[in-house]
Amino acid sequence: xxxxxxxxxxxxxxxxxxxxxxxxxxxxxxxxxxxxxxxxxxxxxxxxxxxxxxxxxxxxxxxxxxxxxxxxxxxxxxxxxxxxxxxxxxxxxxxxxxxxxxxxxxxxxxxxxxxxxxxxxxxxxxxxxxxxxxxxxxxxxxxxxxxxxxxxxxxxxxxxxxxxxxxxxxxxxxxxxxxxxxxxxxxxxxxxxxxxxxxxxxxxxxxxxxxxxxxxxxxxxxxxxxxxxxxxxxxxxx
Length: 238
What we know:
Elements: H1 3-22, H2 29-36, H3 39-73, H4 76-83, H5 86-162, H6 166-237
Helix pairs in contact: 1-5, 2-5, 3-5, 4-5
């Protein structure tokens, strides 16, 4: 086996090993996604698409070359000529066997290369879907707990009204509303103070900007005057 086909066969064995690792059942998709998000893959990501396409082109070229070799050594005329000489017949069969072997190696390497990319994409999508489902379940559980709490509070209020403690419940509710109103007023006051401070800062910036503009105009006029004097001095020298 030549060097190029040895490299292709090694690449095929590596692909088989990686796919077997990806198919291990006790490693979850979330774990694989965390592995795929390591910093080393972020550094290699700019070269991933180029390397993927380059490997596809190389494997296609090798596959077509092996297919040409198979057609070359399996032709009818070659078989007739080889039957006249037993040694030549064995040699041609050996060439045909190597060409078929190279065809299978390159074909399976190309196929598994595409399959491996698709499997990695599906693992990432599955992990993302699991994370989204978990977040939705947590939100649903929190919503259910809040609904249960509101229902329990409603039942407590109903019982209080039926037992004649409605005035007490009303007083407690009013106290809570007063506290909320007080907090809102404090927040509103703080917001007004910040707005006033922002307005004062804006006015100061406007004044400073006006001063800078006037100073720029003055410097520009002085520059123009000096330039005119310089030009007139040059003319007198002439």
